[in-house]
What we know:
Number of domains: 1
Helix content: 10-25%
Strand content: 15-25%
Order of helices and strands: EEEHH
Amino acid sequence: MRRFVRTAEGWTADGRRRAQGRGAYLCSSACAEKVIKNKRYPGLASAALGTVFKVGYDVND
């Protein structure tokens, strides 16, 4: 599960799970694709699919 935090610049991945603010957790790229339909978190899916859940991303970053 990866945590994402919404900042003034938009959604960012929080690998250390210590960033301030409310976060949202996504378990996989399939979950990120389901978030596209959820209007409560605009931009979260594109941030997740564009960073963490792309091919070749190191989960330990």
